[in-house]
Structures are given as structure tokens and as C-alpha cells.
Amino acid sequence: MGAYGDLHARSLADRESFWLEAAGAIDWFEPPTRAFDAGQGAYGRWFPDGVVNACHNALDRHVDAGRGGQTALIYDSPVTGSKRSYTYAGLRDEVSAFAAVLQDLGVAKGDRVVIYMPMVPEALVGMYACARLGAIHSVVFGGFAAAELAKRIDDAAPKVVLTASCGVEPTRKVAYKPLLDQAIAAASHKPDAVVLLQRPELEAELTPGRDHDWAALRAAAEGRTTACAPVAATDPLYILYTSGTTGTPKGVVRDTGGYLVALAWSMKAVYGLNPGETFFCASDIGWVVGHSYIVYAPLIIGATKVLYEGKPVGTPDAGAFWRVVSEHGVAALFTAPTALRAIRKEDPEGREAAKYDLSRLRALFLAGERADPPSIQWAETLLGVPVIDNCWQTETGWPIVANPIGLERLPVKLGSPTVPMPGYDVRVLTDDGQEAPRGTLGNIVIKLPLPPGCLPTLWNADDRFRSAYLEGFPGHYQTSDAGFVDEDGYVFFMARTDDIINVAGHRLSTGGMEEVIASHPDVAECAVVGVADPLKGQSPTGFVVLKAGVDRTPADIEREIVALVRDRIGPVAAFKTALTVQRLPKTRSGKILRGTIQKIADGEDWAMPATIEDPATLDEIGDALAARR
User: Fold this and answer.
1) pLDDT digits (tens, 9 = 90+) for 114-173
2) Tens-place pLDDT, residues 191-236
3) Angle formed by the axes of helices 337-346 and 373-383, to 10°?
4) CATH number for domain 87-229, candidates 1.10.10.60, 3.30.470.30, 3.40.50.980, 3.40.1360.10
5) DSSP assignment of 396-407
6) pTM
7) Cβ of 547: how many Cβ atoms within 10 Å?
8) At the topology level of CATH, where does 504-628 sit?
């Protein structure tokens, strides 16, 4: 670990010089003279005297440097059959004009704007326009439930809401306007205005006096320009809500300067991308991955990005991603392990990938859930490029642990996303706060301060921030992940701490069992939860999705899985039950809803998760459990 090891050590020992040097990669209106002020905020603030603008760094500075004719954004929508491209200059002009629209609606520096839209270029235009004015955007998934949207409207108190008439799914159209109207009716806070983008697939009626037609306002602003507002590096760029354990969403605050610096560093060092190359992040702008690596990071370094409105399978087939990679000359693809598993399930032999020229693809990156080794090995064989796992959170904004292939490609250890990135002092602590021995399962924490780009607090909830993240292990940020660090410093994230189960006094990782189950040749994906057991406390139960084309009986495969877990982990796991289901319940980002599965299995009361992709999958879990009982 030569180059990486030296850099990581320096980032912890001399954070001032390390991060001031990294800050030179972005444009400042007033460059910071200090990297960190430990006396501000809950644990300190980054670049406290710097003045900057995120939209200027993503667009204007590249136009000013003579690169305005380069393609900045490629919109590829197989669900609507639409494709569009924008140059840096064209996107800058579009954003500048739309910022004037927002100004006319009263939006100014520090105001909030909620963006409730599908994966269309206008959603990004709205985000950049907010950043241009110094306003704070808060993106909520298009089609999100009205009650959950109302909570976010009340918390953020937006002056304006940007929306579209509908979202387009492979098999249906989702009307957004009725959901937004219900949310505004239920919310205590009422926005001054709604700007609605009419989509030809399903148009919506405007509410007189409040709603405005996007196209009409934009046409009236043709030719208008808006300057980039100087904002303090510590000013919020956006609020991104993540589910809270109390039912009240947590508004993660992202400050501007530290975020830009961290993204610029990570785009080159972690993802190995250069200016002018094309990056395809197959996420959604409703998630942190979309904010960081669709919206901001590629443009900050002057790359080209793909905005994809579709699915990994079904739009039209399991070759959807490979078609995009080939057609647009993608150098790096970033997706979730669950997308990879979906492709593998539908096309285990990789016949769809063989149809496309993937010669310009240098690496595949995974994040969002634990990347199971069989899927990584399958993709490596299929693509012939490195498949790199990385692990992070909404709260951190960029990878905690990764393999920095743009700096030094480290040996891959299956099951580990590799090593901590600069600024992250990752520790593993026992429940009583002591350092756990290497290789021992414990609580993964980050010694404070967090590096640039991570949340400084929660929106209007400083006390909640401290209690949720800082008080469990004083002096450390609590990730709520369980895992271990091996003798080489590689970090293994085994489960959320809620997913560590206690079987007859033994603390066991459900992630370790899932890794074993996923190695079975007929298994596409799986989830293991701890089910209440009157004798042992909890007993593990596995839910398994089989690959397409498997013609053996599920009962035979389930028996083999039980034997496999008992052989690899041992009788201590007490693994006796594997259940075959057609699909696993997931969030829209692809995370498996293990907590909800566990409640169903235990017969507890449960609420429909706000971010669930398909509620019918929960019925399938219940049916499988009932059939086995």
C-alpha cells in the first residue's frame, strides 16, 4: 500500500495540508486559508472561510476554460424512447435561464426548493439552478407516497416545489400530481408555487393560482442569465432525507465546499475517471449516489455523464446497461449489487453482454448493499474488467471504504470493499467502547472528525444529530454497521448492527450466512433474518430467489442450502430454514428490506416502508412463511 498508505496516513496526521491541497482542484471565489475549524458545529467545520458555488464548479468554469462544446449530459430513456445530449455551454445556459424563473418566483439564497421529479434532464436543471442561486434543494423520489412527501415538505419548508406530471415505469405510468396535491393538503407548510413539467405520456391539470407550467415559464425566460451566487463553504447545498427510526425522516445536510472537494478527489482517485471521459452511474437522483455521482462529481472534473431512465432488466432486457455502455462509450459504470444480481438472474450466461462492444469499459463499481462474492466473480468473468466494491452512506456523501484504482489499485479481497479513504479513521469497537482485536466482529465507527463531504448536522435537528450518531461511542461517528478489520487493514462490512442476530448466546452475522447461500450455483440473491425463537432467542431464516431457467425443485435446493450453511459456518449457526420466493422486497435503491421481513416473520406489527419498490413482494414473503408453517 505505497501511494495509498502514505496518503491515508497523511490525511489523518496532517489534515490541514492534505485537504487544503485537495481544495485546489475546485474553483473558489475566496480560497480558504484554513481547512478545518474544530470549534464550530458538532465536531468541527471544513473550509470555514472559503467562498464557492457548486453550479459554477459543475458548469461555468468549464465553459470559461473553452470547453463549452464538450458533451456534459447524455439523457437515455428506454422507457420513453427518448435521447438528448447537452453540451457544457448549452446546459449552463439552460440552468442560468431557469434560475431566473426561480428568482421570479421569489427563490433566493438560503430558501429551500423541493424537487419531486423522475429521471429527466429538467430535474438536474432544477438542482443546478438552486445551487446557482445559493438556494437549498431537497430531492424526493418522484412517485413517493403522499404522506412521506408531506413530512419532508413540513421539515424543509420549501418556497417552491418542482415536479412533473408523471413518471414512466416499464409497465405503467405513475401520476405525480395527485400525490403532490395530497401531500401539500396534508402538510402544515404550504409552498408559494409549484412548477410542473408536462410529460406527453400523461399530462396533469394545474391548480390555478399556485401551479405554473414549466415550459411556459422557461420560454418566457429565454435569453436571460443569472450569476452564480457566492456562498460560504459551510452553507448547505442540499438536504437529503433518510428514514428515521422514529418515523420522522432525518434531513441530512450537505455543506457546499467540503462536498465539492471530496467529490473532486474521489472522482479521480477512487473511480479513475479523467476529464472528457463518460461515466454511467445507474442510480436515481433521489438517492445520495445519484446526487454525488450523477449530478455533481462527473461535471466537477469535466467528464460526461449518462442520465438513464430505465431499469437494469425489462427495458427491454437484461442487456440494457451493456447497450448504454457500448452506445455512449462509457469508461466506468457504477451500479448497485442488486442490479447486477437482477441481470445475472435473467441472463446467467451473459449472452446479452456478448451482443455489445464493451471495449471502452475500464471498471465496474458497486455500492448500496454488500456485494456478494459470486456476483463479483460472475461480472469479472463476463466483462474482463475490475469489479470494485465501495461502501458509504447517505450521511457521508462519498465512499468511506473503497479501492482507489485511480491512485493505486489494491488487491481485491472478496467480501471487503477494501480500505478506508483519506480522512476516514475507521475503527471497530466492542459494545462497551473498547477497540476490538483484528478480525473480531464489532461496531464499525469513524473517529472524529469526519472528513470533508460528510454531514455536519441534520436539518433543524442538531440535538438529534448528536444523539443518533455521536453519543453511542463518544468521540466517534456511529455507522450502525457491524464488521471487522483484518490484519491487512481491509474493512469487512458484515451487516447493519440491527442484523446481527443472537443465536443461543452467539453473535452471528446474517451477512456471512448470505455470502454462503449466494455461493450456491442456483441462487440469484438471498436475504437472511433472525426470527424469534423461544429456546435460542433467534434462529436464522433464509429467503432465496433462484436464477432464471433453474428446473430443479425448490425443496431440493433448500435442503442443499441448509447443508451448505451448516458446513461452512457450522452447527452454531443453527440454520435450518431456507424459503424460496419469486422476489425479495427492496427499496427503490435496491436495498433489501430485512427489518420488515423480520417483523413479518415474527408476527409483529409493521408499516409499509415509504421507499419500497413493489409492496406485493411483502405478500410473497408472508405467503412463503405461511406455507412453511
Assistant:
1) 999 999 999 999 999 999 999 999 999 888 888 889 999 999 999 999 999 999 999 899
2) 999 999 999 999 999 999 999 999 999 999 999 999 999 999 999 9
3) 70
4) 3.40.50.980
5) TSS-SEE--TTT
6) 0.86
7) 17
8) GMP Synthetase; Chain A, domain 3 (3.30.300)
